[in-house]
Amino acid sequence: MNLGNEPPSLDWHTTTDSTSFDVISNIMNGLTQMDGEMKIVPALASSWEIEEDGKRYVFHLREDIFWSDGKPVTAMDFVFAWRRLQDPDTGASYATFLYDIQNAYEINTGRIKDLSALGVEALDQKTFAVRLKQPAAYFLSLTSTCPTFPLREDVLVEHGSKWTDPRFIVTNGPYRLHKWQHEYKIELHSNPDYFEGEPRVKVVKMFMVPEQSTAFALFENDELDYVDNRSFSTSDVERYLKSPRYRNLPLLRSSYIAFNVTKKPFDKKLVRRAFAMAVDRSVFPRILRREETPLYGWIPPGLLGYSESTGLRFEPKKAQALLARAGYPGGKGLPKVELLYPNREDARLVVEAIQDQLKKNLGVRVELVNQEWKVYLARRKKDPPPLFRGAWGADFPDPESFMNIFTAGSGNNHTRWSSTRYDALLDKARAEQDESVRASVYQSANRLLCEDEVPIIPLYLATQNILTKPWVEGISFNALDIQILKNAVIKDPAGKDGAI
Amino acid sequence: MKRFFIRLSKIRTAVAALLVVLLICLLCVVSYLDLPLTGFAFDETSDAILLDPCPQHPMGTDELGRDLLTRVIYGSRLSITIGVLTALVSLVIGTVYGAIAGYCGGKIDSLLMRIVDIAYSLPDLLVMILLGVLIGRGTLGILIALALVSWRGTARLVRAQFLALKSEEFVEAARAQGQGHLKIITRHLLPNSIGPVIVAMTFTVPAAILSESTLSFIGLGLSPPACSWGTLASDGWRSLQTHPHLILFPSMFIFVSVLAFNFLGDGLRDALDPRTRSISKVGKEL
Amino acid sequence: MFAMIIKRVLSAIPVLLIIATLTFCLVRVVPGGPFDEDKNLPPEIIKNLEAKYNLDKPIAEQYLLYLGRLVRGDLGVSYKYVDRTVTDILGDAFPVSLQLGLAGLTIAIIVGVPLGTLAATRRGTFIDVLAMFISTAGISVPVFVIGALLIYVFGIWLRLLPVGLWESPAHMILPAVTLAFGPTAYLARLTRASVLEVLEKDWVRTARSKGLSAYATVSRHVLRNALVPVVTVLGPLTAILVTGSFVVEFVYAIPGMGRFFITAVMNRDYDLIMGTTLLFAVLLIFTNTLVDIIYHFLDPRIRVED
What we know:
The complex is a heterotrimer of chains A (500), B (286) and C (306).
Chain A: H1 18-27, E1 32-34, E2 40-42, E3 45-51, E4 56-61, H2 75-86, H3 104-108, E5 120-124, E6 127-131, H4 139-142, H5 153-159, E7 175-181, E8 185-190, E9 203-207, H6 212-220, E10 226-227, H7 234-238, E11 246-259, H8 269-277, H9 283-288, E12 293-294, H10 316-325, E13 337-342, H11 345-362, E14 366-371, H12 373-382, E15 387-393, H13 399-403, H14 420-431, H15 435-453, E16 456-468, E17 472-473, E18 476-477, E19 483-484, E20 489-490, H16 493-496
Parallel strand pairs in A: 13-14, 13-15
Antiparallel strand pairs in A: 1-2, 3-4, 4-6, 5-6, 7-8, 8-9, 10-16, 11-15, 11-16, 12-16, 17-20, 18-19
Helix pairs in contact in A: 8-10, 14-15
Chain B: H1 2-33, H2 68-104, H3 106-121, H4 124-135, H5 139-165, H6 169-176, H7 181-215, H8 229-236, H9 245-272, H10 276-285
Helix pairs in contact in B: 1-2, 1-9, 2-3, 2-5, 2-7, 3-5, 4-5, 5-7, 6-7, 7-8, 7-9, 8-9
Chain C: H1 2-29, H2 43-52, H3 59-71, H4 86-121, H5 126-140, H6 143-157, H7 170-199, H8 202-209, H9 214-242, H10 246-251, H11 257-267, H12 270-298
Helix pairs in contact in C: 1-12, 4-5, 4-7, 4-9, 4-12, 5-7, 6-7, 7-9, 9-12, 11-12
């Protein structure tokens, strides 16, 4: 298979990168895991209780789980790992995942120096308890993510920063890290002691081929057994759309156009609404050719609180009327507006299409400004232009992961828009234990965001496209864009040495 | 008789090259005028996405349904302007710099060459990202960025030629006659270094046309929907197997114009060199 | 000669220092820092990370710290490849690029110089025009297109050669050929121009009139004098080729230095950028010194340092 790029690190505390998670998810397990429908099911923990109205979780670990050096996985490994995640010296970006735990935020920001103040404890060898400072309905989904995986204290003490080296790393998942040639290849070997049974495919070779058309050529030459978005350009996939080996899965990854609401004329709600109604989202699947789902609301289909009717539809006549009401009939009087976007093929096509639509439908002149990735990020942070293109991939399958980026305090909200009403709705949803109440609260927040205030125009939901060789089966993907190989099967192992 | 034909063909290629170059320059001028030659606008999107060449769209259409012929014509605007200007600018800077270093020699040469080493070693990519932030988009920014990287090679080439030539008899003779430095450089040294310099110059043209497309990746180049041959080629090359027209036509235009510039450069060299006629004879006899 | 080499080595020290200083300033002036990510990190965490790498100190102090480490031969650590030292990374990547670069360079010289000489001596004939077409194609077609074409023809269509990856000597062929295209074209044109230049000289005609054979004239006298411009461009060209071409390494999925360098720039991986730049500078100074020495052998009248 092809990873596309080098995983920046295999330390599941410090890395934030989906490529790293692709590797880590196959060599490690957490308390829980996600099944094909993104439901949380047991993994290292065989069962758990939620106590005190959602403020305390008690996990019971399985008896038959072992690290790759033969030692059993214990509750202490979780205590150590979660403390290290919050330790400021670790510099873990995803420490925020567990900020709902008592004292986590205080420890991570250095207000409390004592790591043991964190609300986690090992009740015995196999029982792990967590105390939250407030209920968080999505907490269980977090326990399936890589940053919350356990870690062995003795391994870290012995090998220091080199512990992720294949010679030293100790893992508990279906595969073991066998070899790591940087910017080239990672080789995994199956774990014979895995608690769900040893995987059928014994050797997995993960190459890092950055150029899509080369990766695809390798696939056509049988050097790669399956490929995904990272490994073919839009036009390559065209030739296989009819093939039974082609699959298309929606991802929890959305693109949007954001306004800087402090810049004229976007300080006016009416103008923002007019822009949102002037963008025909149905063109995106045609341009990007990967069966993307057009989006009108910010909560994507499949998640709690999604509603098809939320969001402003494409209605150019109404959009023109709104713009006229805002004082710019036919686009007259509107300044030339800048749209900032990063340098990626899909982003370019999308913003070019939007530029043309806004010109046709509203008479607005949009100037496209593309920037190298880091300059784009810096600009968006320091001085966001009137319009910019953004994308967000969910960290865990819950509307919270999408909605909270537009709260007042969020570091990912570059729109300069904030609403106390919106923040209050999200606080309410987060603490709510009843699913249907929670869904309706998110729905109101979604309407506030996408119909009333409109600091963003949601565009589309990205998809994952997969092609496999006829002899490969059983690779599972989820909408967080992580592939699980443990159930993979190769039908003709004679030809392929049981390797992927 | 045979020699006559050879010379004729030489003149013919040079004349043909000149014609092609003029045609391309004309295309470039026309593109600045925004004439509705093809019936489409270069940024006019349509539902006719990725059509193969057909009577209505002789070069097909791109991912957004824009007419490729219109875009290729529009693209000549920047590509030719940048190609020619960059070559000229780097030629002037590089020649003057290299001439001084080579002619003076010694400490001055050493110092000037160390500066070239430094200029070579600084990461171009970072310099250009910074330029993009400071200058922003536009032809001037692209020109500065490209000239900044292309003068160094010319400077080293001219310097080497000068080092080799300056101890030749005819230079010594000129010096003995009491001719001034400037005169020696312009009358004797430069004309004799013209060959490699012209080659360097004709190579700067395609290099500039092609690297302009990479600049747009770091926020220095064009802002869409504007396009150039370079950006058209770099946007289209992944479709080599499925939609070859996207890469074929822009590349063809680059190829033909570079070829023309090369043949013209060759002719130019002959014209500028006082002794060419007799040499082509020697060349032939060898 | 020996004195010149000593002088060069000594003058290399301030040159390297200037390059290090300028690059140091450059990486910090360019917008965007190593920890700017799409998913924004909380300020607390950025502070933790910056403290870990001393990036919270004043620039001047960072600079002195860097120079201090440099003198001790410590090139620092990478921020992106967490916990790998720059020396480690370059130690892995440089040999790969070196092999590929030398292979490409050899092809370029073996094909380019004879092609140019042939074109010059057979001036105006079919061979000359053909050489012109080949070299024009070599420079006017983008490298990635050449790569894609070669992959398609030799990899997918004929199935003769591997289309990518870095496993066996056979894997080196396509990338080396791709890498050699531009330089071959350049060397061919340059050789042609400068051989023509030399053929004009009176002494060549004298040699011919004295009855020296055409082959002997060219090989013994003309080429030797015509090689000055060729050797001149070979200096920087060698340094550029052996430190890796990003496009070629990217297209063929080769773990070389070009790839690491571009990734480092994109990630603002400060120390790795510095390390790669300095390695390149050292190589450049080395090859350019070599060029100046070779001048002397080609044409003893050339005196580089008076």
